[in-house]
Amino acid sequence: MTETRTPPLWKTRQVLLSSRPLSWINTAFPFAAAYVVTTGRVDALLVVGTLFFLIPYNLLMYGINDVFDYESDLRNPRKGGVEGAMLDPGLHRTVLVSGIVTALPLLVAMLVFAGAEHPSSWFVLAVSLFAVAAYSVPGLRFKERPIVDSITSSTHFVSPAVYGLAVAGAVVTPGLLALLAAFFLWGMASHAFGAVQDVVPDREGGIASIATALGAARTVRLAITFWALAGVLMLFTGWPGLLASVLAVPYILAAWPFRSVTDERAETANAGWKRFLWLNFLTGFLVTMLLIAWVMLGPF
């Protein structure tokens, strides 16, 4: 049956698709885990912050991207589902306004609940929001600056965790730095590998990326290297964090078959990318188990 495009249900569905529902947990969980493990409590800031990083944050990040990437998305067969909405131009304003309207009240509440006790958290939140906008908005478009694109994308996922640590007043230790560095390398690897499947449409659309600059095969190998380094860094987080080093292995295995993929066949890496998306759920579960062990056995 053909879907009837009648508001508000159709508009709501398109707005939600633009926020990448499969990725909601990737930003909400790092904040919540960092905050709870550091403070040991469930409070208003945890609830509000988790809600913000769950939906509005992703709606801002991906919605802005879908609006300003509309022309290139027309040539991308992946768009129009869970990997990204193919937004009707008439919905561009709706998506942007929805992101701002849903984010602002929660941001205000977060600042109120956080208070002035940890001013560094304000800076982290500002950097996080800047990265969200800078990735796609005209005039900045960090997504079209090779290497910078992967750094910015990783910031999108690591900054919620850093904010959670900062606002909770976490003590910076070598183990914590190793964990954050590993997380950042994981984020860079994930972005780089995800960019491989879009080499052809990005080049046709005149969009630069780490994959269009390095080529498909070299980008896949770089992603594998970053995941491997992330696993090594986890060995320096102490017990039981070092157990997480093995979590890099499934990602490496998912990307390995594409280490020699040609630019012309780069779209075949989408099969590995789909496995990556589901691996995140398994990894999230195992990380949760490790966090429980962390609470029971003590800090890294």
Structure, explained:
The chain is an all-alpha fold and about 300 residues long. The protein contains 14 helices and no strands. The longest helix is centred in the last third of the chain and has 28 residues, at about 270-295. The radius of gyration is 19 Å and the shape is globular. It is a multi-pass membrane protein. This is Prenyltransferase.
Q: What structural class do the secondary elements suggest? A: mainly alpha
What does the overall shape look like? globular
| Count of extended strands | 0
Question: β content, as a range?
Answer: under 5%
Distance between the termini: 55 Å
Mean pLDDT: 87
* Largest sheet: number of strands, sense, barrel closure: none
Give, in order, the helices and strands: HHHHHHHHHHHHHH
Percent of residues in helical segments?
Answer: 55-70%
Question: Which tags fit this structure?
Answer:
mainly alpha, globular, 300 residues, UbiA_prenyltransferase
